[in-house]
Sequence to fold (550 residues):
Amino acid sequence: MSAPSTPLSVNALEVHDLTVSYRDKVALQDVDLAIPEGKRAAIIGPNGAGKSTLLKAVLGLVPTVAGSVHIYGKPYAQQRHLVGYVPQRSSVDWDFPTTALDVVLMGTYRRLGWFRRPGEAERALALQCLAQVGMDDLADRQIGRLSGGQQQRVFLARALAQDARIYLLDEPFAGVDAVTEQAMLDVLRALAQRGKTIICVHHDLDSAPQYFDWVALLNVRLIASGPLATTFTADNLRRTFGGSMQAAIEHFRHFEEESARG
Amino acid sequence: MSILDLFADYTARNVALGSGLLGVVSGALGCFAVLRRQGLLGDVLAHAALPGICLAYLITASKSSLVLLLGAAVAGWLAAFMLLQIVQHIRLAEDSALGVVLSTFFALGITLLTFMTKRGDAQQAGLDSFLFGQAAALIEEQLVTMAILAGLALSASALLYKEFKLLTFDPVFAASVGLPTQALSVLLTSLIVVAVIIGLQTVGVVLMAAMLVGPAVAARQWTERLEVMIALAALFGAAAGLTGALISLSDTNIPTGPVTILSLTVIVICSLLFAPSRGLLWLRCRRR
Fold:
């Protein structure tokens, strides 16, 4: 792709007036969100704020009541090949009889299309993706015999095998070890440097400023979104977390002290 | 009777082929059912087949296995559909819904069967053998029908192996890459219906579910790969089917279903106890 021909501020993801409800409960209301290409964006909000629902709505996995989602200007159904997805680790049964490499190969299934099985080229790509997350030596291990962090890295490697331009990740840092955290941060930074866009549901306010450069604060409605420096403020956090305001403020103070120190 | 005699004798050959075939198909498809935590679905489909068979006979007065099995398939499919509707639209846990649908269909089936037995129909059409299976009554026409159905089910699952695997392991990711997960689920369930109706003549509606669950559970103990698990399950299913047929042929008073399932149980228990790394004994020894 020739860089000069692309305008400077392309929006990788644009969400307009999105409303989603489960039975009678509104999960997302009138969400407007635009995330520029090449950002590492965090979706932050309290439990039940609709963070995972937002990702699922973008992926067309939950029915929307109203609104639209565009990936590089077109609906998701036309742009599947541009999107990689890392679901929550708890969403699958890790006792499934399969290996780490085999799970990463699933990232190539869409490109392969119906009926075709992965061949040597796909196998090589999958191994390379496992190497990027530091797990090529565990390629043949059954996935239930991996640690939680290693399982999370297998999921990230599968998304890498999708060879996408936008990566949607659902709480990838939840409950992982330090090695995994560092490995995933390195991968996400490298992706962003290559112009890929990272959109990540994140629950930890402490680490958010180190991991991300863009935030969307969500609590059923979108509270604020924009560059981390101007959006991740005490006032915005208070408006996002409402009842659990005190906790949010303390997190924020902690962050300010840290950044003051250097 | 030895295995060689089995293939020399016409009836015995039919029985052996039929039971073996059933074992292969239900073993292979049962893996997907078990991994999708739908082991009980097979039970519902099998029990639901009984009223289907009875109604098919009452309506057409045909003894043709194709007609009867078609009735079974329609009823099984209808039961699966009702199950889905109940779970989606009524706040009822899936296991309760399974219980309700299973007993309703089976009660209807038994009522029809009793009514037809009184008229003398059931005996004549051999309908009562569908309850616990009577492999000795298997004729070539039925065997051909079974073989065609088995061929269709196995080729469909071989062709869509990659898609079924992804659907089973991670349905959310499967949907995100554009697989029509709903349609694939319906297809997979339909293939399980096919496996069930193949087994109706030899194992019977009451015990058929065990032929889906047993081989898969045993096979899972020995391997960490889905391909190997499916192959092993097919092998275990065929072995149990053949053993059951062999025993039941030696004394025609023994229905095939129960002896088949008992043979299968031996395989399952051995696998649960002795399989390396997952077996109970292995785990005990390692803990010491």
Observations:
- Residues 10-35 of chain B form the longest helix (26 residues).
- The interface with chain A takes residues 35, 159-163, 165-166, 168-170, 172-173, 175-179, 220, 223-226, 228-229 of chain B (CB under 8 Å).
